[in-house]
Prior knowledge:
Largest sheet of chain B: 10 strands, antiparallel
Number of helices of chain A: 3
Strand order of the largest sheet of chain A: 1-2-3-4-9-8
Order of helices and strands of chain A: EHEEHEEEEEEH
Distance between the termini of chain B: 65 Å
Order of helices and strands of chain B: EHEEHHEEHEHHEEHHHHEEHH
Strand content of chain A: 35-45%
Oligomer: heterodimer
Radius of gyration of chain B: 23 Å
Strand order of the largest sheet of chain B: 3-2-4-5-6-1-7-8-10-9
Shape of chain B: globular
Number of strands of chain B: 10
Number of helices of chain B: 12
Amino acid sequence: MRMSCRSFPSIYGPVDEIxxxxxxxxxxNLHDHDTCADYYGHYKNCTWAVIECKSRHxxxxxxxxxxxxxxxxxxxKPVNKVIVIADTFGREKGFVRRDHILYLKRGNNTxxxxxxxxxxxxxxxxxxxxxxxxYDY
Amino acid sequence: xxxxxGLRKQLYHLESRTSSKISLAYKILNFYDAYFDLSRIExxxxxxxxxxxxxxxxxxxxxxxxxxxxxxxxxxDIVRKDRDLLESMILMMRGVWTISGLKVPGYxxxxxxxxSVKTYGDIEVGAYSRGEVTDIIDLFWMDSTQTxxxxxxFLSQFSKFYDESHSVNYIVFGIGAPLVQPVTEWxxxxxxxxxxxxxxxxxxxxxxxRIGVSxxxxxxxxxxxxxxxxxxxxxxxxxxxxxxxNSVELDARSSLKLVGKYQDSYxxxxxxxxxxxxxxxKRSLPEDQTITTRMADEINREINRQSSLD
Lengths: 137, 310
């Protein structure tokens, strides 16, 4: 098994509520064939984040995040941040990361990747391990 | 995190190519029948997700195995009526993998959209991460008895796939999107042309600072080197020895099949191969700087020769 990040990352500071994948699946009443993100949690600065943190396949990570965000919102749960954590970005064609924001690249056009109105952030596992987070700045 | 299958085009008619891909995907679905339960088929254009710029065209629920072939024919009918959709189609067959008691959502995906084909292959077999399982490679290498069927038997059967419009060029089992990952992320592969495998090894070597051969390979036609390398009988024997030493099953006839017994066997084999080839290239190939210095010298010499003639 390969893991980019095993725990909820403290990108936006201390956390006071975390739901892991099993918790999320129970909370949203998901079936085995439903995809689900790794974490849903609440930072003390009042930010609710959905996080996919074992991503080796960006296209799949975006699908998991999209489906989780929609189900959370349908259940009336707030979502403010959508975050992908990966070892590397940019190998898969069509994705670019700049200042921790993921962009879609189609020909000469580049636009932010947006899920349900939320811009998707991309963090490298190494940045999380080093503790280089916005909280630390 | 996928098995990427690339097909050699023998017919250039997009409709028959699509029909051929869907037919192969159906055969894959049947092969993995004991492990994969299909739940629905989705047809997308451009990308399999709206956030990625895709458009969801249609969705057909399909839980009865007896209906799958009809549903796929129905999907093909929808796609073939719309030229734009045919060119940008991504057909997702979504369901659940059940292997070693674990249930993980997954898919078999047929790609027509050009950049998806380049990144994920004509057909992609994958799983979404769930718990400790981060990809399908984790699942397929969980139990060595099952690996033999899920990987070895799969490669034996599907490397022989051939119809009027397609034959299989390569099948790669690897982490992430294996076609764009370094070859050290693979766990098994089949290449109809063994030099395609070597080309991938050399491309990975170029980017590996530990091996230090990028300045020897940057200006060289890598495909040419790969082809010449594979003609050297002792190199083939070395490849066999390195594969054996790392528990990688090797079958080299006109094609090349490599299957790691354990998930990391293939990676270890590639590392050993790169360590073997590194010094060989350093001693046998000219470095970038040697080539450019010599070119500059020859340009100056030629200028001097021509000006002396003037």
